[in-house]
Specification:
- By secondary structure, the protein is an all-alpha fold.
- The protein is 47% helix and 0% strand.
- It has a domain of 69 residues: Orthogonal Bundle (Arc Repressor Mutant, subunit A), CATH 1.10.10.
- It starts with a helix and ends in a 42-residue tail after the last helix.
Length: 106
């Protein structure tokens, strides 16, 4: 946090207060979330309960802050690797009328 303030004041140009606030909040959130994830062995369900936030919010914050478990790298998603939800080649939500479709063919 001191580094952020020092950089802002000594850099010759100052950041808008809104950007400083966002960076400071990100630093604090990263430290708190990281500590809780370490204590829970990266069990995100338990971490979300300890932080009193929803599981979905925790997942968003982990992604937004660029966090990943120790020993895991966060691969950059590419358009080739994005897969639809559910079983590949199936249309989700049709129940008994579910039909198989060919993915990728036009």
């Amino acid at each position: 946090m001191a580094r952020l303030l020092e950089t802002t004041l000594n850099n010759g140009h100052s950041l808008p207060l809104k950007e400083i606030r966002k960076k400071a909040l990100d630093l604090v959130e990263r430290e708190v979330i990281s500590g809780v994830l370490k204590k829970t062995g990266w069990n995100r369900t338990r971490a979300a309960k300890r932080l009193k936030i929803s599981y979905k919010t925790l997942l968003y914050k982990i992604q937004d802050l660029g966090m990943s478990p120790p020993g895991h790298s966060r691969p950059e998603p590419s358009s080739d690797s994005i897969q639809p939800a559910g079983r590949p080649g199936r249309i989700k939500g049709l129940g008994s009328m579910q039909k198989t479709v060919e993915l990728g063919s036009a």
